[in-house]
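User: Hi! I have a protein structure encoded as tokens and I'd like to know what sequence might fold into it. I'm fairly new to this, so please keep things simple.
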């Protein structure tokens, strides 16, 4: 059992391996409580894709102590919110509640860690829900394109497939598959608890030890991590389906968030696509290079760009929606011409200063709430090995130089390491395209079926 405190965060590890992070914040009588499990879609082998997300859904189906629906009513009555999310690298659950009611959350998550039931009838009911969820995503041409680009970019690594899973697997996964996944990964030695808000650390730690200290650890399997071989040249994919307009997606291979180059790429993206808050949400991108070159020139109706703070090397993606009358060839050529300017060192110190200033302001704003702080502390404890990675983000942001920007542009914006996807409409479909959001890209699918919508947890505007 170890305890240390740094930068206002107390880190404690129970004998059963459970990591606890506590940060007091007495600005308001509110506490956010998170349990993050170190398992996500990247840990799923072929044949079991989507299993992490499905297990997340099953965790809302009740236990003997808290039957289905009880916590919804209880948390709502006490003025709290709760939800969950599954992403590439993790599955997480949270409650944000009035400080004097947080014990409900502590007890509920301790109970769900060991007593989720996985009733066979509920499993089959949820199969229908999740298949419908997948079918809903398939209404969006951008989903089809994104799935194909991701699958082409990753041939070996678990990032190959979408968080929702492949339809073939969703139709065949069994109750035993789901329960085995739950029993394998939902254990104290595979979990991180993060608590931020109005509490006294000694009292909170004592209560957590009381509730979680006797939960036995499990023998965790060897991580399912298959390193992606180096890409040997540009890859291209073409999706032809009904849709309202052509789309382009360009995805460059980039390092994991712990690599020193990631923060430099984050700033480069702020210059190219517009500054964003940590985890999404921006101030608008009308002064960005891509807006000026593509939107203002009436080549595209809109675009987005961003990179995910991933545990393993992932992608820097730029997604374009073409204006009517424009061709895929001319728009891709215009994008390449603008990116070539960055590669050739044409970004200025003034652009860097502006992007850095906006990124710092948005980071402070987007991580202000106790809910967001608690999430990011747990998240970086997992993907970066220490919550301190989150607390030092601004310091590393300030350290990025113009030469750093030119260097990463030259080394990472290379055709040899990218995957290019075209969506080619086969007919003028009248169906509405689902609006994508950076939150979905960064944080994966979010359970909304059993809980009320909650803007507090949303890490992008």
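Assistant: Happy to help. Inverse folding works backwards from shape to sequence: for each of the 461 positions I chose a residue that suits the local structure. Here it is:
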């Amino acid at each position: 059992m170890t305890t240390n405190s740094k930068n206002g965060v107390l880190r404690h590890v129970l004998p059963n391996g459970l990591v606890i992070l506590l940060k007091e914040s007495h600005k308001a009588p509110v506490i956010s409580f998170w349990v993050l499990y170190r398992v996500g879609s990247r840990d799923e082998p072929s044949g079991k894709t989507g299993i992490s997300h499905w297990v997340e859904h099953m965790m809302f189906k009740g236990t003997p102590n808290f039957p289905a629906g009880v916590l919804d009513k209880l948390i709502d009555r006490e003025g709290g919110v709760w939800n969950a999310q599954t992403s590439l690298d993790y599955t997480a659950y949270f409650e944000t509640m009035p400080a004097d009611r947080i014990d409900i959350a502590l007890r509920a998550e301790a109970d769900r860690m060991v007593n989720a039931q996985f009733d066979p009838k509920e499993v089959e009911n949820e199969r229908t829900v999740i298949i419908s969820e997948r079918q809903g995503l398939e209404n969006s041409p951008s989903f089809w394109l994104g799935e194909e680009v991701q699958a082409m970019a990753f041939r070996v690594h678990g990032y190959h497939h979408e968080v929702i899973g492949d339809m073939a697997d969703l139709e065949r996964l069994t109750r035993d598959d789901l329960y085995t996944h739950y029993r394998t990964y939902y254990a104290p030695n595979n979990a991180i608890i993060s608590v931020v808000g109005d509490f006294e650390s000694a009292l909170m730690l004592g209560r957590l030890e009381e509730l979680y200290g006797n939960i036995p650890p499990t023998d965790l399997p060897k991580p399912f991590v298959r390193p992606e071989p180096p890409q040997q040249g540009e890859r291209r994919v073409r999706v032809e389906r009904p849709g309202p307009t052509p789309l382009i997606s360009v995805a460059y291979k980039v390092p994991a968030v712990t690599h020193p180059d990631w923060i430099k790429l984050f700033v480069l993206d702020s210059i190219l696509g517009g500054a964003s808050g940590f985890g999404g949400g921006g101030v608008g991108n009308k002064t960005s290079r891509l807006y000026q070159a593509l939107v203002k020139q009436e080549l595209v109706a809109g675009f987005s760009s961003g990179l995910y703070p991933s545990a393993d090397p992932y992608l820097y993606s730029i997604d374009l929606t073409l204006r009517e009358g424009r061709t895929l060839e001319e728009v891709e050529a215009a994008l390449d011409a603008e990116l070539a300017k960055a590669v050739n060192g044409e970004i200025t110190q003034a652009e860097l200063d502006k992007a850095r200033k906006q990124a710092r302001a948005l980071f402070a704003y987007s991580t202000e709430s106790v809910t967001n702080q608690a999430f990011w502390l747990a998240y970086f404890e997992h993907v970066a090995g220490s919550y301190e990675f989150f607390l030092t983000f601004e310091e590393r942001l300030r350290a990025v130089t113009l030469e750093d920007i030119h260097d990463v542009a030259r080394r990472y914006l290379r055709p040899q390491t990218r995957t290019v996807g075209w969506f080619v409409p086969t007919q003028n479909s009248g169906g509405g395209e689902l609006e994508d959001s950076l939150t979905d890209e960064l944080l994966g699918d979010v359970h909304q079926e059993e809980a009320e919508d909650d803007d507090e947890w949303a890490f992008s505007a």
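A useful reference point when you look it over: The mean pLDDT is 90. Feel free to ask if any position seems puzzling.
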